[in-house]
Design a protein that fits this description.
83 residues, mainly beta, five-stranded antiparallel sheet, three-stranded antiparallel sheet, 1 helix
Length: 83
Amino acid sequence: MKATWEKVFEYSSMPVQGTMSRKLRKGLSVQVNEGKVYEKAVIFLGEEFVRVTEEGKTGQTFNTYYDWTKIDSVRTCSAKEKE
């Protein structure tokens, strides 16, 4: 399933210039394993893990690490396009 989850993360984000990280596309959020919803996060797709970095309200940086083999679901959410 790693290849599938990689594609989901890649489609929901774009590369950060000069790094191996990716930031979420504007207006899109991601939820891993029905947990926290990340709205303005930077994702690093490593060989063994996924790291999600987000900034807290007080300016602190939080890193959450996911083992590829422990990811059961990835949910993406975006606003509905106007018709």
